Amino acid sequence: MLDQRPLPRLLVLASTYPRWAGDHEPGFVHELSKRLASDFKVTVLCPHAPGTSTSENLDGVEVVRYRYAPRALETLVNDGGIVTNLRLHRWKILLVPGFVLAQAWAAWRLIRCTRIDVIHAHWLVPQGLVATLLKAITGTPYLVTSHGADLYALRAPPFQALKRLVARHAAAITVVSTSMRERILSLGVDTSKVNVQPMGVDMAQRFTPVPSMKRSERKILFVGRLVEKKGLVHLLSAMPRVLQRIPDARLAIAGFGPGEAEAQALVESLGLQPAVHFLGAVPQTQLPDLYRSAAVFVAPFVRAVSGDEEGLGLVLVEAIACGCPVLAGNVPALGEVLGQENMDVTVDPRDHDRLADHIVASLMQPECARARAEQLRQSLGRRLDWASVTTAYAQTLRHLAGKA
User: Ranges for the Glycosyl transferase family domain (predicted)?
Assistant: First the structure.
């Protein structure tokens, strides 16, 4: 007899979330949510943004967007993320109380109208704080996932106290890399409820190699938000040294964000206009072909002045999944992603001479670079494909919901 029991109900709390199908904003929370829809009745509560609807069904996920300010001022999240937007526009701190209270109010109304079995809060602050309030009021257990910026940045004592509060009351905590586990344990968290569970990449259908597609011999590719921790200024600073040795090398930049003006100014000051092409915000559907056609993908990750750094580096995983040779900044999180190849494909991006040397070596020895890329692809496929990642999250959430 078929099991007729209703699916448990999962409420996902998020800040960064696709505003519409094909949006260029990071989509990993949605990618996980839509895959969990086979095990749960999933509702995502995320902030409204200009041009979005207040409710819709997106890939089988019920998406509810709450209003937190007049429409023209709903700019706290997009085009850089909350931490970056607050650093660049100090006045936006005035939006934070309304942002948090509006999400808490909307979430409470959802719980009141619909039985919710478990909450998945993405980011310790502010979503984890909202989940903590909801647990105090309704008793609903929650899993909180830290993605990096929430853990590494926001280091002032009040924020540290809020993180401890969220971690203490969470039924379970996941971080997306082992290096983050050590950081969150420093908050005094019970080790038994902290697990490393990364986000995934669609390595089965979307991000795959296409052997028939010709790979460029000279195109260098950067993909990511134009913010400090992505390290684009260091890649641009290394480009004159690359061009001295490989004059026909070209850099394509796919991304958007508050650092674009600085990057454009640096290109002009270094006289790089003929060699650097800004592609702007590229839809997710177009990214695979960019990875498949590049000679090398460079992700020059660094630790930002705020302390923020990459928690996992999904764009790097996407490039590897497409068989693209890669070079990355040597931030701690990449050690477990790259494994034995870590030393060969990471460098301190602030050393522009060494960064240029590694880029030139990859361009001049393409067969070696591609062989290394294939080794990485085979290794990652067993750990970071969405199928295995979703299974791990579903097991954790079912346990918390009492449905295991």
Answer: 216-371
